Amino acid sequence: MSSIVLLGSTGSIGVNTLIIAKRYNISIEAMVAGSNIALLNQQIAQHHPKIVVIANQADKHKVNHHDVRCGSEAILTLIEESQSQTIVNALVGYAGLAPTLKATSLNKRVALANKESLVVAGEFIDMSHITPIDSEHFGLWYLMNGRPLSKLYITASGGAFREWELAKMKDATFLDALKHPNWSMGNKITIDSATMTNKLFELLEAKWLFGTSNIDAVIEKKSIIHALCEFKDGSTTAHLAGVDMKLPIAFALQGEVTEEILPPTDLLSIGGLEFLPIEAKRYPIWHIKEHILNNPHLGVIVNAANEVAIEKFQQEQCSFFGMSDIVLDAYEKFGDAKAKNIDEIIEIDTEVRAYVESTKVLS
After folding, report:
1. What is the fold, at CATH topology level, of the domain defined by 3-132?
2. Which of 36, 165, 298, 354 has the fewest C-beta atoms lying within 10 Å of its C-beta?
3. How far, in Å, CA of 59 to CA of 41, rounded?
4. Does residue 254 contact residue 141 with C-beta atoms inside 8 Å?
5. Residue 156: per-residue pLDDT
6. Chain centroid to CA 359: how far?
7. Which segments in the chain show pLDDT lower than 70?
């Protein structure tokens, strides 16, 4: 029986990974979770991991397992000790980078749902060890088939404020931004969806995964089309599937899937599809799209500034548009940064966070 190590078991990707693992008789060697101990205990009872890692020492006594470890270093040790050759990384944010680097350094395969790993350090990660768990990148991979490409496209939902008047968006609250029109996700990715930062990150991921800067994104409100490939012969092919991560997860774990994972797309019930441009006046982060695709090493700046900006927004220390102001300011301030190795990535990340923390936000 094959086995995996699952990082981020209690998030939506983790929950769906466990469903697919059970379906294909894949054992869970170890689980890593944050603070949702109630759900973690349910998962332990059902999947019987050998080792469990949680975020906080204070929660250790609540976990129903004989081998519970705590903290980020424990995750790295776990990856090193594990027998599994596949690590599913569904951790959120910068915290996911070190486990990706550790796993790839050990020649383990990483089924990667952590966008920030490639955004921050794609230049230093061996892509041959990476299989993306992401509907957009899975869709691109599914469509490409080695034919000569002209351009790649991914789609965006538009986030919580796609229908809002711009004047109203200035006063949007953190809770407003969490009301995603199409699905329920964790706080960070939902905020990133509202600012379009997640789509900027996905463009950077695609840059590293597929080796091209000739990629763009458009809004498709129903989130039925996930990716499109424009070929040199002038034709364009789209990948349509339901809003469900089980399909890319199944391919990431199995390599090939020949049975039905999702119900087929019902074209008649969809009716019509509408594509809209991503406009910088609604999504100011889009001002740097072309520049960062040609300078992808600057992803570390955007990620660090964005994580602090989200905290400031949640604590009502800046407005919704203030988050983008923070990121764009840091992007300009640290525009000359160019890491030569992972140690320098860590230094730049620390400097950017300190700068953003200390900067007073006017908007």
Report:
1. Rossmann fold (3.40.50)
2. 165
3. 12
4. no
5. 94
6. 27
7. 1, 180-186, 361-363
